[in-house]
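Long-time lurker, first post. I've been practising inverse folding by hand and with some scripts of my own, and I keep getting stuck on stretches where the structure tokens seem ambiguous. Below is the full token string for one chain I'm working on. Before anyone asks, I'm not after the true native sequence, just a reasonable design that respects the backbone. If someone could post their per-position residues I'd love to compare against what I wrote down in my notebook.
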């Protein structure tokens, strides 16, 4: 990142500060010594210090002068601030510590407000700058709108956004960065980028995640710049704390406009600064008259001038004052002036700039009915950014109807802002004021308000989880006192997911607040309630942070079962991230904790999950052991869904170790239970895996039927990831049965799905299958390039099975390209992995490929040896395609070594098997060979 003038100034001041501290510390230390030894008669000081010894009181004077001077100098070296401006908030580090957060991103601009008044000079400057840049093709510069609190920065940015919206047809986004929001930490760059990417349509599974915060910021920022490349979009970054916070969020293209609002001066040399000052007196009076609902003639102009002066000519204060007189038709301007002066007297201890606005707040607040005053105070406790009537009801301990009425009234009084979807937000200054009022009351009010809103979210999450959790799965129960909480009506999965996405930042903010207040039980329960959504929607690094926080909370309370649950969820998410070592550690600890707590169901679930991890890392023995133990526990508990899951996963392990009959048995039993339970997702998964096994067993018609059934169910469930998996497997069947065009279409569709969804493993599978098709079509150089890409992806993912499959196919392609040494090396590496995995079917396939290479390169005897090995393996596991290939290979080698008569028997065996399998192309090749041999 380039050095900026502001950065240089900060470094200079910092260095000067360090020098002053060091020098001042040395002088102070010496003077303290003088003070303590000045009256000593046992030591005599040299030179001018002897004079100080004769007059010891001067040591005290000098010590005081140095201390005061040092304090003054350090203050002077501190960052200069605007009058009344608070220090720059600290953006918490992206180190993964503490509960996660999320940025609130609006996909459209907030409503333009009637409180906007004439800012024609600033607006013309902005519009002119944008127009000139677009007409000349120059890059649009970032426009930083700065000014003191309450001056109308956000109002100006939103109004300008509406004026310019037509120039940016690719969308308008609004992000609150919480730079100066009381009770909220400034939004991290990782959080803002994740929310922005999701808001622009990037699937959360595709958003980069990981433990290296700097690398993740860089990766997400790169994706964000790529997402906006070539587009014309408008981005408003509201309430920025520092340039460092917003810099990663800036688009890289030239066609996007970024408007930044901040109380700080964030200027760097490539930005345009628009300073929004307090309103000119006449504009402030005009705004007051317009919002008051009175005619200008009915109001004393001199009194109006004094009123707007008293509130600092700030639009926020003027709006509140105008609302007061509008709601009191009997008041005159003089009456309002009298009340405002009294309010300022009550706030005399505040600085002048603060007092100007706070007095208008106080006047508006005291004009509210007592119950509305209490409701407003409760809003100051809300940890989130936006709220609706349901949250308001929980905060205020009132009904939703009453909360809606109170919120509407506070909006009419200009004490809250309204956002789309009947949602509300407090201006940061009003949030400060409400929090200050609330803090004047009982200290437990804050804790109780947070408890109430967390309880509401637990109740609402219980409703959403009924729609998104698979049938038969355990849903985190609502809290005992949830019955008194009113929750939104959610009648579909779509509605539930929409609510969850909107409320995600607020729920996470509540968890962070609860964690800060040591409300550990609420942290644990909210994390468990959010887990099903985060499993599906991600981003997974956010889920990791949440479950780590829940685990720490459980350790604080000594709740073993809660700790086990948090660790189990952490392990599942780590598996999704392909962090298999961390996943195994978390899940193994979860098994231990569940066992200690006597929770057999939890232990079975954790065993099932760690078994999946071991399957993915090809530790088949450990995986089979874990799934068998989980299955036994599920059967003892009578848990039918658990039994089906363990059976399905055990079937996959059996298939991976070429135990096809036992794989079909386990998967068929799982399928039967899923159908009994009406679990369509489980049914589709079992059908897909049965299709894979039947393909390996040469039962291609049944395999294709099962893959199509699975695909149709996934489509009905709108599960695009698994649709892609079914398409890939269907493509394999089509390739083997002589339909390369259909196979290419299926693999290409799957690749598009995987690329869009960010599934790296599935994408690698599609690329490998397309490489095989390239080789079969004769484009060997392309096949080698594609297969090498797949191989690299598998190695990055740690997928040894995928690595072995790619090496096998790469060996074939290199052999055709006359790269014999490279081919042999690939076959050897593939065999080593497959033997370690226990994949005998895959091993037979590699031996067949190696035998073909030896035969065609002039060594049929060695080739025959490889084919014999393959034949023994294939017959042992009942893998008919590899058996037929081995028979064909032996026959072709015999034809070269001993002549056609010796070869005919093996070749006819292969021909019969190919015809039975429906592999017409390979059968036709042998028939042509036999005909030529007879001729």
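-- Answer (accepted) --
I ran through it position by position. Result:
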């Amino acid at each position: 990142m380039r050095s900026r003038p502001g950065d240089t100034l900060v470094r200079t001041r910092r260095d000067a500060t360090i020098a002053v501290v060091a020098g001042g510390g040395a002088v102070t230390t010496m003077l303290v010594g003088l003070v303590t030894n000045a009256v000593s008669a046992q030591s005599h000081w040299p030179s001018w210090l002897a004079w100080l010894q004769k007059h010891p009181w001067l040591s005290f004077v000098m010590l005081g002068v140095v201390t005061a001077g040092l304090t003054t100098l350090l203050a002077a070296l501190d960052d200069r601030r605007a009058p009344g401006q608070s220090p720059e908030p600290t953006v918490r580090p992206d180190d993964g510590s503490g509960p996660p957060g999320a940025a609130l991103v609006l996909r459209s601009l907030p409503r333009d407000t009637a409180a906007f008044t004439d800012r024609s000079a600033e607006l013309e400057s902005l519009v002119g700058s944008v127009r000139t840049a677009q007409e000349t093709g120059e890059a649009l510069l970032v426009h930083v709108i700065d000014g003191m609190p309450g001056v109308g920065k956000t109002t100006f940015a939103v109004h300008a956004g509406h004026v310019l919206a037509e120039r940016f047809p690719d969308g308008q986004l609004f992000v609150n960065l919480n730079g100066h929001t009381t009770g909220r930490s400034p939004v991290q760059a990782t959080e803002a980028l994740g929310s922005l990417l999701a808001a622009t349509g990037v699937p959360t599974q595709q958003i980069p995640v990981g433990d290296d915060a700097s690398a993740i910021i860089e990766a997400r920022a790169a994706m964000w710049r790529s997402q906006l490349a070539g587009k014309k979009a408008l981005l408003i970054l509201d309430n920025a704390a520092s340039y460092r916070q917003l810099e990663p969020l800036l688009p890289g293209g030239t066609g996007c406009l970024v408007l930044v609002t901040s109380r700080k001066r964030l200027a760097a040399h490539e930005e345009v600064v628009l300073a929004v000052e307090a309103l000119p007196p006449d504009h402030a009076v005009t705004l007051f008259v317009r919002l008051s609902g009175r005619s200008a003639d009915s109001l004393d102009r001199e009194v109006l001038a004094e009123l707007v002066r008293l509130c600092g000519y700030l639009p926020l204060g003027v709006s509140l004052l105008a609302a007061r007189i509008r709601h009191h038709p009997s008041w005159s301007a003089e009456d309002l002036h009298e009340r405002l002066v009294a309010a300022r007297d009550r706030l005399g201890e505040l600085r002048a700039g603060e007092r100007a606005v706070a007095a208008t707040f106080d006047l508006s607040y005291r004009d509210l009915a007592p119950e509305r005053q209490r409701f407003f105070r409760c809003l100051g406790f809300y940890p989130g950014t936006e709220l609706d009537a349901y949250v308001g009801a929980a905060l205020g301990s009132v009904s939703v109807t009453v909360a809606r009425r109170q919120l509407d009234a506070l909006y009419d009084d200009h004490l809250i802002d309204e956002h789309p979807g009947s949602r509300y937000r407090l201006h940061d200054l009003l949030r400060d004021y409400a929090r200050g009022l609330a803090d004047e009351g009982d200290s437990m009010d804050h804790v109780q308000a947070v408890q109430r809103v967390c309880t509401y979210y637990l109740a609402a999450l219980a409703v959403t989880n009924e729609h998104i959790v698979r049938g038969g799965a355990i849903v985190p129960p609502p809290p005992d006192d949830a019955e008194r909480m009113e929750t939104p009506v959610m009648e579909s999965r779509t509605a539930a997911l929409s609510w969850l996405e909107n409320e995600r930042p607020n729920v996470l903010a509540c968890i962070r607040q609860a964690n800060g207040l040591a409300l550990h039980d609420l942290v644990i329960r909210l994390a468990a309630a959010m887990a099903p959504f985060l499993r599906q929607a991600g981003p997974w690094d956010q889920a990791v942070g949440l479950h780590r926080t829940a685990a720490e909370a459980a350790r604080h309370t000594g709740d073993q079962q809660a700790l086990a649950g948090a660790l189990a969820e952490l392990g599942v998410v780590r598996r999704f991230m392909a962090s298999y070592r961390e996943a195994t550690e978390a899940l193994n600890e979860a098994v231990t904790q569940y066992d200690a707590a006597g929770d057999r169901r939890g232990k079975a679930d954790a065993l099932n999950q760690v078994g999946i991890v071991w399957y993915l890392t090809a530790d088949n023995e450990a995986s089979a052991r874990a799934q068998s133990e989980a299955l036994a526990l599920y059967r003892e508990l009578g848990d039918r869904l658990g039994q089906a899951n363990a059976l399905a996963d055990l079937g996959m392990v059996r298939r991976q170790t070429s135990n096809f009959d036992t794989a079909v048995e386990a998967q068929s039993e799982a399928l039967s239970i899923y159908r009994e339970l009406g679990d369509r997702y489980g049914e589709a998964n079992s059908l897909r895996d049965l299709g894979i096994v039947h393909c390996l067993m040469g039962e291609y018609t049944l395999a294709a039927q099962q893959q199509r059934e699975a695909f149709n169910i996934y489509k009905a469930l709108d599960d695009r990831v698994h649709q892609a998996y079914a398409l890939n497997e269907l493509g394999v069947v089509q390739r083997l049965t002589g339909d390369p065009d259909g196979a290419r279409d299926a693999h290409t569709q799957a690749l598009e799905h995987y690329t869009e969804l960010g599934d790296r493993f599935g994408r690698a599978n599609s690329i490998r299958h397309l490489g095989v098709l390239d080789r079969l079509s004769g484009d060997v150089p392309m096949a080698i390039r594609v297969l090498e890409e797949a191989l690299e992806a598998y190695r990055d993912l740690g997928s040894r099975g995928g690595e072995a499959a790619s090496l096998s196919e790469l060996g074939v392609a290199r052999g055709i390209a006359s790269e014999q040494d490279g081919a042999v090396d690939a076959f050897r590496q593939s065999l080593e992995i497959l033997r370690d995995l226990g994949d005998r079917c895959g091993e037979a396939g590699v031996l067949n490929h190696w035998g073909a290479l030896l035969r065609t390169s002039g060594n049929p005897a060695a080739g025959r040896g490889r084919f014999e090995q393959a034949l023994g393996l294939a017959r042992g596991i009942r893998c008919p395609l590899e058996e037929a290939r081995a028979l064909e290979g032996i026959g072709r080698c015999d034809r070269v070594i001993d002549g056609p008569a010796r070869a005919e028997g093996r070749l006819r065996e292969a021909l019969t098997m190919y015809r039975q399998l429906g592999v017409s192309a390979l059968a036709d090749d042998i028939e042509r060979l036999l005909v030529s041999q007879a001729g």
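A couple of notes from the structure itself: Strands lie at 105-106, 142-146, 172-176, 234-238, 257-262, 271-275, 417-419, 423-425. The longest strand covers residues 257-262. Happy to go over any region you disagree with.
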